[in-house]
Amino acid sequence: MKASSFRLLYWSPRIVGLLFAGLISLFALDVFDGQHAFWQTMLALLMHLIPTFLVLGLLAAAWRWEWLGALSFAALGLGYLIGFWGRFHWSAYVMIAGPLLLLSGLFLANWLCHRKEHLVAGNVS
Question: If DSSP states are collapsed to H, E and C, what string results for the chain?
Fold first, then answer.
């Protein structure tokens, strides 16, 4: 594999993960409706950002261990589909589960490519 292809495969899931964290962070902005006191609003914001913190934590772990990213993002995507099926318009599933499953596939491809290069180089670990 060319070095540029390897770099693209390495950075793609990480950038998509950061963009996805930014996307789901936007949903937390609905706490600023002006109906609550400052500390109530901050607590609500913190609670609304829990999914973002989860994604960023998994992304940090997957940065080092790609196989963990492949498993965890697939579990999040499938868990979202199973847990919320039938409650929303189909576009909600595409917007939330789609990027999670894409992240899983990208991290899996990155891990397999990494593993293949280690096997070719003779580093069986």
Answer: CCHHHHHHHHHHHHHHHHHHHHHHHHHHHHHCCCCCCHHHHHHHHHHHCHHHHHHHHHHHHHHHCHHHHHHHHHHHHHHHHHHHCCCCCHHHHHHHHHHHHHHHHHHHHHHHHHHHHHHHHCCCC
